[in-house]
Write a structure and sequence with these properties.
Shape: elongated
Number of strands: 21
Number of helices: 2
Number of domains: 3
Radius of gyration: 32 Å
CATH topology of the largest domain: Porin
CATH superfamily of the largest domain: monomeric porin ompg
CATH architecture of the largest domain: Beta Barrel
Helix content: 10-25%
Strand order of the largest sheet: 10-11-12-13-14-15-16-17-18-19-20-21
Structural class: mainly beta
Length: 377
Protein backbone atom coordinates (compact mmCIF):
# COMPACT_ATOMS: atom_id res chain seq x y z
CA UNK A 1 0.00 0.00 0.00
CA UNK A 2 2.80 2.43 0.88
CA UNK A 3 4.58 1.60 -2.37
CA UNK A 4 1.44 2.41 -4.40
CA UNK A 5 1.09 5.76 -2.64
CA UNK A 6 4.77 6.53 -3.32
CA UNK A 7 4.33 5.73 -7.05
CA UNK A 8 1.28 7.99 -7.28
CA UNK A 9 3.17 10.86 -5.53
CA UNK A 10 6.19 10.51 -7.84
CA UNK A 11 3.96 10.52 -10.92
CA UNK A 12 2.15 13.64 -9.66
CA UNK A 13 5.46 15.39 -9.01
CA UNK A 14 6.68 14.56 -12.55
CA UNK A 15 3.49 15.97 -14.09
CA UNK A 16 3.79 19.14 -11.98
CA UNK A 17 7.43 19.61 -13.02
CA UNK A 18 6.48 19.15 -16.67
CA UNK A 19 3.74 21.78 -16.38
CA UNK A 20 6.24 24.15 -14.70
CA UNK A 21 8.75 23.69 -17.51
CA UNK A 22 6.05 24.49 -20.06
CA UNK A 23 4.78 27.54 -18.15
CA UNK A 24 8.17 29.09 -17.34
CA UNK A 25 8.99 30.34 -20.88
CA UNK A 26 5.42 31.59 -21.25
CA UNK A 27 5.62 33.42 -17.91
CA UNK A 28 8.91 35.13 -18.79
CA UNK A 29 7.59 36.14 -22.22
CA UNK A 30 4.45 37.58 -20.64
CA UNK A 31 6.49 39.59 -18.13
CA UNK A 32 8.75 40.92 -20.89
CA UNK A 33 5.72 41.94 -22.96
CA UNK A 34 4.15 43.75 -20.01
CA UNK A 35 7.41 45.57 -19.32
CA UNK A 36 7.65 46.68 -22.96
CA UNK A 37 4.05 47.84 -23.02
CA UNK A 38 4.70 49.74 -19.77
CA UNK A 39 7.64 51.57 -21.27
CA UNK A 40 5.69 52.31 -24.41
CA UNK A 41 2.83 53.61 -22.32
CA UNK A 42 5.18 55.88 -20.36
CA UNK A 43 6.68 57.27 -23.57
CA UNK A 44 3.22 57.88 -24.97
CA UNK A 45 2.17 59.59 -21.76
CA UNK A 46 5.17 62.02 -21.86
CA UNK A 47 3.69 65.51 -21.57
CA UNK A 48 4.99 68.28 -23.82
CA UNK A 49 3.04 71.48 -23.01
CA UNK A 50 3.86 73.21 -26.30
CA UNK A 51 1.92 70.55 -28.26
CA UNK A 52 -1.43 71.66 -26.82
CA UNK A 53 -3.46 73.91 -29.12
CA UNK A 54 -3.46 77.04 -26.88
CA UNK A 55 0.29 76.81 -26.19
CA UNK A 56 1.23 76.08 -29.81
CA UNK A 57 -0.25 79.41 -30.92
CA UNK A 58 1.82 81.47 -28.41
CA UNK A 59 5.33 80.59 -29.76
CA UNK A 60 6.69 80.50 -26.19
CA UNK A 61 9.89 78.86 -24.97
CA UNK A 62 9.55 76.12 -22.34
CA UNK A 63 11.87 74.70 -19.68
CA UNK A 64 11.30 71.78 -17.32
CA UNK A 65 12.93 71.76 -13.89
CA UNK A 66 14.26 68.65 -12.17
CA UNK A 67 11.14 68.74 -9.99
CA UNK A 68 9.02 68.17 -13.12
CA UNK A 69 7.55 71.69 -13.21
CA UNK A 70 7.24 73.46 -16.58
CA UNK A 71 7.79 77.20 -17.06
CA UNK A 72 6.76 79.20 -20.12
CA UNK A 73 8.44 82.41 -21.25
CA UNK A 74 11.52 83.47 -23.17
CA UNK A 75 14.91 81.74 -23.13
CA UNK A 76 17.47 84.55 -22.91
CA UNK A 77 20.72 82.57 -22.85
CA UNK A 78 22.68 79.59 -21.59
CA UNK A 79 26.30 80.47 -20.82
CA UNK A 80 28.82 79.37 -18.20
CA UNK A 81 26.43 76.68 -16.89
CA UNK A 82 23.81 79.37 -16.11
CA UNK A 83 20.43 79.55 -17.86
CA UNK A 84 18.59 82.89 -17.93
CA UNK A 85 14.85 82.61 -18.48
CA UNK A 86 12.25 85.39 -18.60
CA UNK A 87 9.16 83.69 -17.17
CA UNK A 88 5.66 84.80 -18.08
CA UNK A 89 4.67 84.79 -14.40
CA UNK A 90 7.94 85.08 -12.39
CA UNK A 91 9.95 87.58 -14.48
CA UNK A 92 13.69 87.09 -15.07
CA UNK A 93 15.09 83.94 -13.43
CA UNK A 94 18.57 82.38 -13.39
CA UNK A 95 19.00 78.61 -12.99
CA UNK A 96 21.99 76.32 -12.62
CA UNK A 97 22.11 74.24 -15.80
CA UNK A 98 22.24 71.02 -13.76
CA UNK A 99 18.77 71.87 -12.38
CA UNK A 100 17.18 71.96 -15.87
CA UNK A 101 15.79 68.70 -17.29
CA UNK A 102 14.41 69.82 -20.67
CA UNK A 103 14.38 72.92 -22.89
CA UNK A 104 12.25 73.70 -25.93
CA UNK A 105 12.48 76.85 -28.02
CA UNK A 106 10.68 77.26 -31.37
CA UNK A 107 12.53 80.54 -31.91
CA UNK A 108 15.73 80.70 -33.93
CA UNK A 109 18.75 80.23 -31.62
CA UNK A 110 22.51 80.04 -32.00
CA UNK A 111 23.81 76.82 -30.41
CA UNK A 112 27.48 76.26 -29.62
CA UNK A 113 28.67 72.65 -29.42
CA UNK A 114 32.18 71.85 -28.19
CA UNK A 115 34.78 71.73 -31.02
CA UNK A 116 32.15 72.77 -33.61
CA UNK A 117 31.07 76.04 -35.17
CA UNK A 118 27.77 77.56 -33.94
CA UNK A 119 24.64 76.10 -35.55
CA UNK A 120 21.28 77.86 -35.83
CA UNK A 121 17.74 76.58 -35.51
CA UNK A 122 14.97 75.74 -33.08
CA UNK A 123 16.18 73.86 -30.02
CA UNK A 124 14.96 70.82 -28.11
CA UNK A 125 17.16 69.65 -25.20
CA UNK A 126 16.41 66.41 -23.35
CA UNK A 127 18.26 64.78 -20.47
CA UNK A 128 20.95 63.43 -22.80
CA UNK A 129 20.52 65.01 -26.24
CA UNK A 130 20.41 68.37 -28.00
CA UNK A 131 18.36 68.61 -31.18
CA UNK A 132 18.74 71.64 -33.46
CA UNK A 133 15.96 71.82 -36.05
CA UNK A 134 16.53 73.93 -39.18
CA UNK A 135 13.86 73.49 -41.82
CA UNK A 136 13.44 69.79 -42.55
CA UNK A 137 16.88 68.89 -41.13
CA UNK A 138 17.51 67.90 -37.51
CA UNK A 139 21.03 67.72 -36.08
CA UNK A 140 21.49 65.76 -32.86
CA UNK A 141 24.34 66.22 -30.36
CA UNK A 142 25.22 65.00 -26.89
CA UNK A 143 23.99 67.24 -24.09
CA UNK A 144 27.41 66.97 -22.40
CA UNK A 145 28.97 68.77 -25.41
CA UNK A 146 26.60 71.76 -25.22
CA UNK A 147 28.44 75.00 -24.37
CA UNK A 148 25.92 77.78 -25.00
CA UNK A 149 22.55 78.82 -26.39
CA UNK A 150 22.05 82.46 -27.37
CA UNK A 151 19.40 84.33 -29.39
CA UNK A 152 20.35 84.85 -33.02
CA UNK A 153 20.85 88.54 -33.70
CA UNK A 154 20.59 89.37 -29.99
CA UNK A 155 21.22 92.94 -28.91
CA UNK A 156 24.83 93.89 -28.32
CA UNK A 157 23.82 95.35 -24.95
CA UNK A 158 22.76 91.88 -23.74
CA UNK A 159 26.38 90.70 -23.94
CA UNK A 160 27.66 93.35 -21.49
CA UNK A 161 27.61 93.57 -17.70
CA UNK A 162 29.05 96.17 -15.36
CA UNK A 163 29.71 96.77 -11.67
CA UNK A 164 30.59 100.11 -10.07
CA UNK A 165 31.52 100.50 -6.40
CA UNK A 166 32.54 103.47 -4.28
CA UNK A 167 33.57 103.98 -0.66
CA UNK A 168 34.41 107.09 1.31
CA UNK A 169 35.42 107.82 4.91
CA UNK A 170 35.88 111.09 6.80
CA UNK A 171 37.54 111.92 10.09
CA UNK A 172 37.68 115.29 11.84
CA UNK A 173 38.96 116.63 15.17
CA UNK A 174 42.67 116.81 15.88
CA UNK A 175 43.23 115.70 12.29
CA UNK A 176 41.13 116.06 9.17
CA UNK A 177 41.22 112.90 7.12
CA UNK A 178 39.40 111.78 4.00
CA UNK A 179 39.76 108.52 2.07
CA UNK A 180 38.01 107.74 -1.18
CA UNK A 181 38.13 104.66 -3.38
CA UNK A 182 36.30 103.59 -6.49
CA UNK A 183 36.26 100.50 -8.66
CA UNK A 184 34.55 99.88 -12.00
CA UNK A 185 34.40 96.57 -13.87
CA UNK A 186 33.03 96.08 -17.39
CA UNK A 187 32.65 92.67 -19.04
CA UNK A 188 31.49 91.40 -22.41
CA UNK A 189 30.84 87.66 -22.69
CA UNK A 190 29.90 85.51 -25.66
CA UNK A 191 30.02 81.71 -26.00
CA UNK A 192 33.58 81.90 -27.42
CA UNK A 193 35.10 85.07 -25.92
CA UNK A 194 35.45 87.13 -22.75
CA UNK A 195 36.45 90.81 -22.49
CA UNK A 196 37.41 92.15 -19.05
CA UNK A 197 38.08 95.83 -18.24
CA UNK A 198 38.78 96.92 -14.66
CA UNK A 199 39.68 100.27 -13.07
CA UNK A 200 40.59 100.88 -9.41
CA UNK A 201 41.50 104.22 -7.83
CA UNK A 202 42.39 105.27 -4.27
CA UNK A 203 42.83 108.78 -2.88
CA UNK A 204 43.63 109.91 0.68
CA UNK A 205 44.43 113.18 2.44
CA UNK A 206 45.28 113.94 6.09
CA UNK A 207 45.21 117.57 7.37
CA UNK A 208 45.61 118.86 3.83
CA UNK A 209 48.53 116.55 2.98
CA UNK A 210 48.03 113.95 0.29
CA UNK A 211 48.73 110.44 1.60
CA UNK A 212 47.54 108.26 -1.26
CA UNK A 213 46.83 108.69 -4.95
CA UNK A 214 47.04 105.60 -7.15
CA UNK A 215 45.25 104.29 -10.21
CA UNK A 216 45.28 100.85 -11.82
CA UNK A 217 43.68 99.71 -15.08
CA UNK A 218 43.59 96.12 -16.38
CA UNK A 219 42.35 95.10 -19.84
CA UNK A 220 42.14 91.48 -21.04
CA UNK A 221 40.55 89.67 -23.96
CA UNK A 222 40.17 85.87 -23.86
CA UNK A 223 39.30 83.72 -26.87
CA UNK A 224 38.32 80.12 -26.07
CA UNK A 225 39.96 77.35 -28.05
CA UNK A 226 37.97 74.69 -26.20
CA UNK A 227 35.59 74.47 -23.26
CA UNK A 228 38.35 75.49 -20.79
CA UNK A 229 41.49 76.47 -22.74
CA UNK A 230 41.81 80.05 -23.99
CA UNK A 231 44.33 82.45 -25.47
CA UNK A 232 44.63 85.93 -23.93
CA UNK A 233 45.47 88.73 -26.40
CA UNK A 234 46.11 91.35 -25.22
CA UNK A 235 46.90 91.36 -21.50
CA UNK A 236 47.38 95.01 -20.47
CA UNK A 237 47.99 96.72 -17.13
CA UNK A 238 48.53 100.42 -16.42
CA UNK A 239 49.60 101.63 -12.95
CA UNK A 240 50.23 105.08 -11.51
CA UNK A 241 51.41 105.36 -7.88
CA UNK A 242 53.61 108.38 -7.03
CA UNK A 243 54.08 107.13 -3.46
CA UNK A 244 55.83 104.07 -4.94
CA UNK A 245 57.86 106.41 -7.18
CA UNK A 246 55.90 105.25 -10.23
CA UNK A 247 54.77 108.09 -12.44
CA UNK A 248 53.53 105.52 -14.98
CA UNK A 249 54.01 101.81 -15.57
CA UNK A 250 52.67 100.01 -18.63
CA UNK A 251 52.75 96.21 -19.08
CA UNK A 252 51.63 94.62 -22.36
CA UNK A 253 51.65 90.91 -23.14
CA UNK A 254 49.82 87.86 -24.47
CA UNK A 255 49.48 84.37 -23.08
CA UNK A 256 47.47 81.22 -22.47
CA UNK A 257 44.95 80.42 -19.77
CA UNK A 258 42.86 77.56 -18.45
CA UNK A 259 39.59 77.36 -16.52
CA UNK A 260 40.50 74.87 -13.79
CA UNK A 261 36.95 74.90 -12.38
CA UNK A 262 33.91 76.20 -14.23
CA UNK A 263 30.64 75.32 -12.53
CA UNK A 264 27.51 77.36 -11.78
CA UNK A 265 28.83 78.13 -8.27
CA UNK A 266 32.62 78.17 -8.66
CA UNK A 267 34.95 79.59 -11.31
CA UNK A 268 38.73 79.39 -11.10
CA UNK A 269 41.13 80.24 -13.90
CA UNK A 270 44.89 80.74 -14.28
CA UNK A 271 46.83 82.60 -16.98
CA UNK A 272 50.52 83.00 -17.86
CA UNK A 273 51.55 85.87 -20.14
CA UNK A 274 55.07 86.77 -21.37
CA UNK A 275 55.05 90.59 -21.41
CA UNK A 276 56.99 93.80 -21.95
CA UNK A 277 57.09 96.44 -19.20
CA UNK A 278 57.91 100.16 -19.44
CA UNK A 279 58.43 102.30 -16.30
CA UNK A 280 58.50 106.07 -15.90
CA UNK A 281 59.67 107.19 -12.45
CA UNK A 282 58.96 110.45 -10.60
CA UNK A 283 62.54 111.70 -11.10
CA UNK A 284 62.13 111.42 -14.91
CA UNK A 285 64.17 108.23 -15.17
CA UNK A 286 62.86 105.31 -17.24
CA UNK A 287 63.44 101.57 -17.27
CA UNK A 288 62.17 98.89 -19.63
CA UNK A 289 62.34 95.13 -19.29
CA UNK A 290 60.70 91.85 -20.16
CA UNK A 291 58.30 90.35 -17.62
CA UNK A 292 56.44 87.13 -16.94
CA UNK A 293 52.90 87.75 -15.67
CA UNK A 294 50.93 85.16 -13.72
CA UNK A 295 47.30 85.82 -12.77
CA UNK A 296 44.49 83.83 -11.22
CA UNK A 297 40.87 84.55 -10.35
CA UNK A 298 38.67 82.50 -8.02
CA UNK A 299 34.95 83.28 -7.70
CA UNK A 300 32.74 81.18 -5.38
CA UNK A 301 29.06 81.51 -4.50
CA UNK A 302 29.05 80.79 -0.76
CA UNK A 303 25.30 81.28 -0.45
CA UNK A 304 22.46 82.91 -2.36
CA UNK A 305 23.47 86.32 -0.99
CA UNK A 306 27.21 85.98 -0.41
CA UNK A 307 30.07 85.59 -2.90
CA UNK A 308 33.82 85.34 -2.33
CA UNK A 309 36.15 86.72 -5.02
CA UNK A 310 39.93 86.33 -5.00
CA UNK A 311 42.22 87.90 -7.61
CA UNK A 312 46.02 87.77 -7.81
CA UNK A 313 48.37 89.20 -10.41
CA UNK A 314 52.14 88.80 -10.10
CA UNK A 315 54.98 89.98 -12.33
CA UNK A 316 58.52 88.65 -12.43
CA UNK A 317 60.95 91.19 -13.92
CA UNK A 318 64.40 92.75 -13.52
CA UNK A 319 65.85 94.67 -10.56
CA UNK A 320 65.95 98.05 -12.33
CA UNK A 321 62.16 98.01 -12.63
CA UNK A 322 61.57 97.06 -8.98
CA UNK A 323 61.96 93.28 -9.13
CA UNK A 324 58.83 91.21 -8.55
CA UNK A 325 55.48 92.95 -8.04
CA UNK A 326 52.26 91.57 -6.57
CA UNK A 327 48.64 92.72 -6.55
CA UNK A 328 46.11 90.77 -4.46
CA UNK A 329 42.41 91.38 -3.81
CA UNK A 330 40.09 89.32 -1.58
CA UNK A 331 36.44 90.45 -1.54
CA UNK A 332 33.26 89.39 0.24
CA UNK A 333 30.29 90.46 -1.88
CA UNK A 334 26.94 90.73 -0.02
CA UNK A 335 23.65 91.09 -1.94
CA UNK A 336 21.55 93.82 -0.33
CA UNK A 337 19.01 94.07 -3.13
CA UNK A 338 18.76 92.76 -6.70
CA UNK A 339 21.36 95.21 -8.00
CA UNK A 340 22.78 96.74 -4.81
CA UNK A 341 25.71 95.09 -3.03
CA UNK A 342 28.00 95.67 -0.05
CA UNK A 343 31.66 94.83 -0.69
CA UNK A 344 34.35 94.30 1.94
CA UNK A 345 37.78 94.01 0.32
CA UNK A 346 41.33 93.42 1.51
CA UNK A 347 43.97 94.66 -0.94
CA UNK A 348 47.72 94.01 -0.81
CA UNK A 349 50.15 95.68 -3.22
CA UNK A 350 53.87 94.94 -3.14
CA UNK A 351 56.87 96.10 -5.18
CA UNK A 352 59.78 94.01 -3.90
CA UNK A 353 62.46 96.68 -4.40
CA UNK A 354 60.87 100.08 -5.18
CA UNK A 355 63.18 102.60 -6.78
CA UNK A 356 64.28 105.46 -4.48
CA UNK A 357 62.85 108.88 -5.18
CA UNK A 358 64.65 112.15 -4.51
CA UNK A 359 62.80 112.57 -1.22
CA UNK A 360 62.59 109.10 0.32
CA UNK A 361 62.78 105.33 -0.05
CA UNK A 362 59.27 103.92 -0.58
CA UNK A 363 58.18 100.96 1.55
CA UNK A 364 57.50 97.79 -0.45
CA UNK A 365 54.01 96.98 0.88
CA UNK A 366 50.67 98.76 0.89
CA UNK A 367 47.62 97.29 2.67
CA UNK A 368 44.03 98.50 2.44
CA UNK A 369 40.74 97.35 3.97
CA UNK A 370 37.89 98.82 1.93
CA UNK A 371 34.14 98.87 2.56
CA UNK A 372 32.05 100.10 -0.35
CA UNK A 373 28.60 100.03 -1.94
CA UNK A 374 28.33 98.56 -5.42
CA UNK A 375 25.73 98.59 -8.17
CA UNK A 376 25.36 95.89 -10.86
CA UNK A 377 24.19 96.67 -14.38
Amino acid sequence: MKADVQKISNASARRQLKRTKVRAPFTFALLALLAFLGRAGNAADQFYPWTSAPAASTNLDWIQLKSGEWLAGRLKSLQDEKLEFDSEELNLLTFDWKDIRMVYSPRLKSVLIEKLKPVEGSVFVTTNQVQVIAGSATNTYSRSDLLAITPTGSRELDKWSAKISAGVSFRSGNTHEVDFNTKATLQRRTPVSRLYLDYEGNYGKVSGTETENNHRFIGQFDYFLSRKLYVRVPDVEYLRDPFQNLDHRLTIGAGMGYDIIKTPRIEWNVTISPSWQANWFEDSETANAGALVFSTRFDAELSKRLDFIFFYRGQVTRAETGNNTHHTEATLDFDIHKKLKLDVSFVWDRISDPKDSAAEHPTPDDFRLITSLAVDF
